Amino acid sequence: MSWEEMKDLQLEEKPLPLETKELNGILMTKMMSDNWDKIWNFQAKPDDLLIATYTKAGTTWTQEIVDMIHNDGDVQKCQRANTFDRHPFIEWTLPLPLNSGLDLAIKMPSPRTLKTHLPVQMVPPSFWKENVKIIYMARNAKDSLVSYYHFSRMNKMFPDPGPWEEYIEAFKAGKVLWGSWYDHVRGWWDAKDRHRILYLFYEDMKEDPKREIQKILKFLEKDISEEVLNKIIHHTSFDVMKQNPMANYTTIPTSMMDHSISPFMRKGVPGDWKNHFTVAQNKDFDEDYEKKMAGTTLTFRTTI
Q1: 167-191: b or e for each residue (b if 16 or more CB lie within 10 Å)?
Q2: Which of 23, 140, 175, 296 has the most CB atoms less than 10 A away?
Q3: DSSP state, residue 91
């Protein structure tokens, strides 16, 4: 069943269960963990493309860029369906009669573009076996935290984030859905030289979308004209996507995502963390960050 059909049936008053459960030390919804065997055994295909991110790191942005590339900048084609129907979210499991990401992916004809927030060690093994191309988008920890906090406030399918002060501690401890940001970005960084992974940074994409989209084009072995490239840059800009109902998640019932609390596409700028962290919180966060990110060559910019 689609979201539109669900709205028609007036099912939006029925909230979804919010039970969570840890699996291999990673917090998930209970529905995901209950469905884990099916997720783990998902069969990837060699011509699949997987878009992987930690939550709120520019996932939808990357999806829209890739879809525009695959459709040679045809805006109408890219608005054929919601982002989440075009690019199934492989581990996201919903109660019947709604379609889970896995079911959508299995039914989808090739070539498929798929989405995941899974840490690298929990990606179904068939993706590695089939040598699937993966685009990973990473965003700095402070902006990821702020965006995830506001998203959790409006997304009734996620656990309530509680007060800001408590949420910072939960994020630092990795006690949020999909686990630790630190382990996630480091795990994918370490895997990038062993697999076909294009590792991108949100801040770089914001600074120079043309340069970063050209990296994606090269990775996907696609050639497009300068005119189409400029069209893609325009139509995947934050302000245009914010107005696109096929990308901004406004078609989902209010009981599941309440945009009046915080819009799904909120600000989309690096450095918004400065409006949230106190001086003391920032100092504590930086000290903890140094410990958790010690020994890696991975570096982030918190402003551009």
Answers
A1: bbebbbebebbbbbbbbbbbbbbeb
A2: 140
A3: T
Give a yes or no: residue 262 inside a domain. Answer: yes
Q: Which of 70, 87, 117, 259 is catalytic?
A: 117
CATH of the domain at 275: 3.40.50.300
The CA distance from 108 to 42, in Å, is 13
pTM: 0.92
Alpha helices in the chain (DSSP H): 3-8, 30-34, 36-40, 59-70, 75-78, 83-86, 101-107, 126-129, 141-154, 164-172, 181-191, 202-207, 209-220, 226-235, 238-242, 279-292
Whether the CA torsion 154, 157, 163, 169 is positive or negative: it is negative
The CA angle 246-247-251, to the nearest 5 degrees, is 55
> Within a domain: residue 269?
yes
Q: Residue 27 pairs with which residues in a beta bridge?
A: 22, 177
**Structure-token match 């895997």, residue found:** 191
150 is catalytic: no
Nearest to 126 by CA among 40, 44, 192: 44
Candidate from 22-26, 118-122, 271-275 with smallest mean pLDDT: 271-275
Query: Tens digits of per-residue pLDDT, 194-244?
Result: 999 999 999 999 999 999 999 999 999 999 999 999 999 999 987 877 777
Residue 85 structural domain: 27-291
